From TrEMBL:
Domain of life from the UniProt record: Bacteria
Record membrane topology: Multi-pass membrane protein
Location (main, coarse): membrane
Organism of derivation: Fodinibius salicampi
TM helices/strands, residue ranges: 7-27, 39-56, 68-85, 100-128
Subcellular location: Cell membrane
Family: Belongs to the MgtC/SapB family.
Keyword Cell membrane part of the UniProt annotation: yes
Protein known as: MgtC/SapB family protein
Length: 146
């Protein structure tokens, strides 16, 4: 009975789902540790949603797999744009918006079945914001503290 329920696509979907949730947790934890609004829940939903759209686009219309995936990129870009705030000469949440966009790419990697690439990208996404930044103040400008 269980073998009939978890045959083919369902088992692959469960693996993709677990990887997506783990990636969302890892990336989201990094963002929450820096006090950002887009944390574990947001990143988990973006990655899992991107994975699901990509996963379904491969099964529903195999001859045009990139059609739905392309819309995922646009939609997540729109979501990220809503996070960016300009306050005077300072731009805030740019890194968080980029993190959301990158999270969508991680989800798409899982949805297309590129699990190792998705795992590596997750690690990279958690490490990049922790890298030392070179900052040189220009006269009349302020640093972006994202």
């Amino acid at each position: 009975m269980m073998q009939e329920v978890l045959s083919g696509y369902e088992l692959v979907f469960i693996i993709d789902l677990v990887l997506s949730l783990a990636a969302g947790f890892i990336i989201g934890t990094e963002r929450e540790s820096r006090g950002k609004d887009a944390g574990i829940s947001t990143h988990s939903l973006v990655i899992t949603g991107a994975m699901l759209f990509t996963f379904l686009s491969m099964r529903v219309d195999p001859s045009s797999q990139s059609r739905i995936a392309a819309q995922v990129v646009t939609g997540i870009g729109f979501l990220g744009a809503g996070l960016i705030l300009k306050e005077g000469s300072t731009v805030r949440n740019l890194t968080t918006a980029a993190s959301i966009w990158f999270a969508g790419a991680v989800g798409m990697a899982f949805g297309f079945g590129y699990h190792i690439i998705g795992i590596i990208a997750t690690i990279v996404s958690a490490v990049i914001p922790r890298m030392a930044h070179y900052s040189r103040k220009r006269p009349g400008s302020t640093n972006d503290k994202d």
